[in-house]
Amino acid sequence: MRAVVLVRPKAGILDPQGEAVQSSLHQLGFTVSEARVGKVIDLEVAAENAPAARAEIERMCEQLLANPLIESYEIELSEGE
Amino acid sequence: MKETQPRIGVLVFPGSQDDRDAAWALGALGAEPVMVWHGEEELPRLDAVVLPGGFSYGDYLRCGAIARFSPAMQAVAAYAEDGGLVLGICNGFQILCEAGLLPGALRPNTSLQFVCRDVRLVVERADTPFTARCEPGQEVVIPVKHGAGSYHRPPELSDEQVVVRYIADDNPNGSQDDIAGVANETGNVFGLMPHPEHAVDPLLGSGDGALILASLVDSARERLYARA
Q1: Is the ipTM value over 0.90, yes or no?
Q2: Of A25, A46, B125, B135, which sits 20 to 30 A from B103 (CA to CA)?
Q3: β pairing state of B86-89 and B189-192
Q4: What phi, psi does B39 have (nearest 5°)?
Q5: pLDDT digits (tens, 9 = 90+) for B159-211
Q6: CATH topology of domain B7-227
């Protein structure tokens, strides 16, 4: 089963990378009121079903993929071939 | 003859840079440094442990995120749990935060620049095993060199755990409340972003780092005597 994990700086956490991106977009003439930069992690997991896969990936996020103090995460599942 | 030289372990991760400097400084201040490879599952007999600066495991995902799972770090966690003295410098501080041995997290510097320079610090707590040679409120000069040293303060952190602060107009990384180093609740684990091991000789610009490392050597020696 394929999964995409999106890891983002939590709301309220200063994101200097996002600020730098926003300011560069302004310089290019785009109007952007906020930019935040996170990470995408593509996973291929062996799990019996979607709930089992989700539970397993949540544990991965809590232990390693995200730092729950400063980052939030979202898990998107899709059936693999 | 009575053993007087405390043994202080210095962990060596793939990417550690300041392990040799830390070992040299500890040796110059009267300790016997013992290098501990990250793959070791058990620590030798030690009176304190130092996690040095530099990098570890490429610092993928987040600084220190992978290193915390190394076999030696499992041993360090158990050592800290037993009340052992653990000092984390720079990357070592990041590893201790990721491992949950210290509160908080270190984020990229607000400037997004790597900062390498002397900073002025205030010693807020001079009653710890790591700062006993300092006076409360003493100002010291110790260099920083990091790209991700901006301390994120968790809500549960008490002010009593803040051991060193940057002087307000000398905060190099945007750390919340100018926090440069924190201790755990029991006071036996301490981490800071500045590098005391790079400031143990006035020839190198400042000898103030020796106050911190010599405090650790003193405390480690007390542990040695207590055990003897």
Answers
A1: no
A2: B135
A3: parallel
A4: -85, -5
A5: 999 999 999 999 999 999 999 999 999 999 999 999 999 999 999 899 999 99
A6: Rossmann fold (3.40.50)
